[in-house]
Amino acid sequence: MKKSKKESINPVLENLNFYSGSGMLQYNDIQYMLIRPETVIEIQKVLEEIFGVSTAHEILYKSGFKGTSLTANKLLKSGLSPDQCLQAMFEMGGYLGWGKFVLQEAPGGISDREVVIHASPFARAYGTSEHPVCFILSGALAGIFSTLKGTSYLCSESECIAMGNPFCRFYLRSQ
């Protein structure tokens, strides 16, 4: 990827607090850690090798779901509306390096949605694959929508950078 000049200030980085005595990073009173996507993908590949793709998907999906549902609940309790939370979380995904999230209407029911994510660090780190690999992002999106809409959502990835697509496309369906 070609380096470019700094486009804008990243509010997450500007407001990230580092506590040297404990080695802790916090943003909005939530603890975070910096980790390379290759580390997450190596965990995914080992899970796939030992337990199979389906089980690896389930484990990482549930992990992504848990993390974003915690954040979405915190944002709702802070007084943001569900729409404001969704916008904040999609922006935050980009600020954290998870790619650019773009919400699209889906050709299903009124509650169905599609999300396109550009530059998924997980797909890029995984390398070439015959199947979608952004399991943690699928779960993260399901966690966001389930929490903010108050109903269960399932998310599946239909297109993936690891499969040679220019972006990753996710389909969310309410239950």
Describe it for me?
The protein is an alpha+beta fold and 175 residues long. The chain has a single domain, classed as 2-Layer Sandwich (Muramoyl-pentapeptide Carboxypeptidase, domain 2). The chain is built from six helices and seven strands, in the order αβββαααββααββ. It has helices spanning 11-14, 37-51, 53-77, 82-95, 121-126, 135-149, and strands at residues 17-19, 24-27, 30-32, 100-105, 113-118, 153-159, 168-174. The strands form two sheets. It has a four-stranded antiparallel β-sheet with strand order 4-5-7-6. A three-stranded antiparallel β-sheet has the order 1-2-3, with no helix packed on it. β2 (24-27) and β3 form a beta hairpin. The relative contact order is 0.15. The mean pLDDT is 92.
Give me the number of helical elements: 6
Radius of gyration: 16 Å
Q: So what's the overall shape?
A: globular
Instruction: Return the CATH architecture.
Output: 2-Layer Sandwich
**What is the typical, i.e. mean, pLDDT?**
92
Order of helices and strands: HEEEHHHEEHHEE
Q: Based on the structure, what is the oligomeric state of the protein chains?
A: single chain
Fraction of residues in helix: 40-55%
Give the termini distance in whole angstroms: 39 Å
List keywords for this structure.
single chain, 175 residues, alpha+beta, Muramoyl-pentapeptide Carboxypeptidase, domain 2, four-stranded antiparallel sheet, globular
Topology:
Elements: H1 11-14, E1 17-19, E2 24-27, E3 30-32, H2 37-51, H3 53-77, H4 82-95, E4 100-105, E5 113-118, H5 121-126, H6 135-149, E6 153-159, E7 168-174
Antiparallel strand pairs: 1-2, 2-3, 4-5, 5-7, 6-7
Helix pairs in contact: 2-3, 3-4, 3-6, 4-6
